[in-house]
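User: Hey, quick favor. My workstation is busy. Could you predict this chain's structure for me?
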Amino acid sequence: MRRKYNIFGLVIPAKNGGLMFCDKCEKIVGSINAKGYRFLSFSLTCTCGNECQLELIRKSSTFDIAMKYKRKPRIKNNLMSCVDCGTPIFGIIEERVEKFSFKAECICGAKYDTKARTNRRLEETALFLRYKNRSL
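Assistant: No problem, here it is.
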């Protein structure tokens, strides 16, 4: 696969990673570990309403965009890290993002994807109601 670099709605000072800024409100919405990925694609909605998309693909990537991997990275302190090798891939500041979804391939070859995440409080309420209905 050839190298690709597509960004819409975000400002990233370096082409391969670093801090991500919303190009509408200029808030920091996250960061990318420049040495932690082979493939990274995500879309997010900033709290200001700006729709943002990013796609970074390196030549060494083996990620198949059509496949569903149904695997989540380790998430701690808003930082997504590889489960296999522990390498940080990227981070999102959830307080500044309404929703996001991503697909990623770690530098070690582990592949991750997730469906769009809604507001954390709404997600907690939905999980609570699902649990409550099961116990009835």
